[in-house]
Write the structure tokens for this entry.
Amino acid sequence: MLSSLQNPRQAAAQLMNFGLILSTAFMMWKGLSVISDSPSPIVVVLSGSMEPAFQRGDLLLLWNRNLVSETNVGEIVVYNVKGKDIPIVHRVVRKFGLGPDAKLLTKGDNNAADDTELYARGQDYLARQDIVGSVVGYIPFVGYVTIMLSEHPWMKTAMLGIMGLVVVLQRE
Amino acid sequence: MYSSVVRLQNTFGFFTTVAFVVAAIIAASDLLAPRTPSVGLLKTTNLQVVRGRPHYYSSKKEEYAIIKFSLDADLSSLFTWNTKQLFVYVTAEWPSVGGSGSGQNATNQAVIWDSIITSPSADHLANLGPIAMKKLKRSAAGKSIDPNRGKLSLKNQRPKYQISHPSGKVAEQEDVVLRLHYNVQPWVGILTWNQDADFWKWTTLRNNLSKKFKLPAIKKKVEKKAGASS
């Protein structure tokens, strides 16, 4: 029972192990961020506005470099709007101009109207710098856990409790 | 030690590994399926430019182009067991207004029409009313891949989107072309668009440009007779 509490060396080793797992995950995330040049290279779909292509909980891999060509009409991009903290995944439907000054308009495949209403007050178009990345890869459903956790906060508490118990009670 | 927690962890770990390997194999199988999309016809049938407001409460007047077109295309080879949906779209593209050397607005691209074609395996996800859904499901009952999906034949199709430009002017714009694009959405894996060159078993979409055309001058608004006045 509670062997780790009786043996400080083992407790320290377990703490190190836990820290190693956390830092590995963090490094992989940041590494992906550097490779894709995107502040958040993996996002979870939160709304149904791109259905039937993306459902809630699907995982998207983003790429934010324009190595071969610019961000073009038809690409599905994740963008941020000033003053709103939730990134939006929609398709670019209009592009006027080239380079960083290009004016981009987006629309959800499942929405009737374009995104002008979603943009900041007085903003009619997106700029390239508002875009966090273009969707290149798709894995269904895997991200649903994060939606469950954010919508039912008690699950987060329960999960943290179970993880803590496992760490404390684990013998080896 | 072999506690039940460790066993549970191992089982879950093995499950995720197997799931990801299977998903990767499915995603890679896309490359083995040949893609031979073809376009028979893409041409404009009716051009119109009208003045209008971007939304009901706006006082700004802009010019809008209404481009009707005909399209014949066979994209059925894009449907494989890993295809969830095909997003087909037609863009109008034109060069910079005035052609100033500043580089601003050098190229303009706007979607005038698009369509989501679901694979029979994704029909239940389509955003349709109950009757249209029943019809869609019946059209491919018992088939995992429907060879009729992706065959497009549009005649004098009205555009879904009336396009404008940030400058508010599109009338008498020259060198406008229509271009057909597609985007294949997989069940798992990499999203693909029509590629510019042939790539192993995937051929590029040829003949997907219309002839260059010039948008007409503004059509004078025909005053509608007031029907039922409320």
In short: Residues 4-29 of chain B form the longest helix (26 residues). The interface with chain A takes residues 1, 3, 5, 23, 54-55, 84-85, 87, 89, 91, 103-111, 114, 116, 118, 122, 125-127, 161, 163, 165-166, 181, 183, 185-191, 193 of chain B (CB under 8 Å). The CA atoms of residues 104 and 155 of chain B lie 35 Å apart. The longest strand of chain B covers residues 38-52.
